[in-house]
Amino acid sequence: MAIIRSKKTLLPIAVLSVLTLGLSACGSGSGDDGDGGGSEPAADCAAYETYGTFDGAEVSVYSTIVDVEAERLEGAWADFSECTGVEVVYEGSKEFETQIGVRSQGGTPPDIAIFPQPGLLATEVAGGSVLPAPAEVEALVDENWTEDWKGYGTVDGVFYAAPMLASIKGYVWYDPTVFADKGWEIPETLDEMATLTEEIAAEGTMMPWCAGFESGEATGWPGTDWVEDYVLRQSGPEVYDQWINHEIPFNDPQIAEAFDAVGEILKNDEYVNGGFGDSRSILSTPFPDAGQPVLDGACAMHHQASFQSANWPEETIVAEDGDVWAFITPGVEAGAKAVTGGGEFVAAYADRPEVVAFQSFMASGEFANARVALGGNISANLQLDPAVATSDLDRQSIELLQSEETVFRFDASDLMPGAVGANSFWSGIVEWINGSETEEVLDTIESSWPQ
Length: 451
What we know:
The chain is of the alpha/beta class. It has 18 helices and 13 strands. It folds into two domains: about 210 residues, D-Maltodextrin-Binding Protein, domain 2 (3-Layer(aba) Sandwich), CATH 3.40.190.10; about 210 residues, D-Maltodextrin-Binding Protein, domain 2 (3-Layer(aba) Sandwich), CATH 3.40.190.10. Helix content is about 40%, strand content about 15%. Helix 1 crosses helix 14 and helix 9 crosses helix 11. The two termini are about 25 Å apart.
């Protein structure tokens, strides 16, 4: 999950920016290149009349989303700001997971927090500062989202946070030209992917894989995505759900099986870390940079979510016949439709009218279409038109989210209690890559699960 954003930040910096009424509107139907630049037409404010007007009002928003993704996020609500008069003060930080608790406990929370993990949301709800979602926001979520997605923003039967954006996890990125030239076939099963990995290593011109788990205080999270993909594919959705809900312990043999299968790749110096060093260099490689060797010819494959599109250099063509493309991590059997994914959730610490108006907009189809049209992200909002996506991969991801055939499971670490999903699981991955045995790591994570 952890984007975003905890799992999607582009640079290891915090960004503080303010949208003022003087900003040129980044209209929801414009900006197909996603850079937010250039002259934009004035907003059509008729679409925003239902939110009211609040000249001089201010709403503070805090999240993990930084750099280019933050600019696009701001662009998606620029028309709302211009038309309603709400000045949106936005702050993005890689330290959100730790600092949101510090701020709320200290009595200085933001008006709005965008949570990258339902588990962290639940922890904050338990602290007593997060407010239940207003009725108008809940009504929008009932209309625009599936029951499962609403459930991720619900704690102990009370609805708190509307879904915002989404991602499909488990994509494996590769250079189509290299695969064609080498005669490498896209694997249809996990066994075929293991065989391909061996073949590429034996061929000797590049490493099979490149990876990077460095993400500031969230270092380790990309490794949790690997493990979650394997748990779902090897053991199925029922075991995955039992794992999330602690109906089986974290050190269950089925979880150990997934760790060991992932370890056959990530802990093997013959398979990683193309372009960076040995397997332990995974921990010092910033995750936004980790896929670059695919373009440089230093590695063949990189495991990362759909939001990896935003991490490629601006001129990169993401297409089946382009510079880079991706396939979903396969299952045990060919044709498996199981995928993991993530998303963010918008919760409030204040209930002023302008805050409620902003929450309502963020749960709307207008926001989803505006943000996706700016590129680099997707949403599970049912009002989202896949045609507005700026890449074939984003359209494919949206269609996967909307397909009834897809077995979708939310990122496990994001659903677990924060002490595990945003703490011991991440740090356990670090210890594991550094050489600790699977059994030792899983026992430590299990002991951290709140009683």
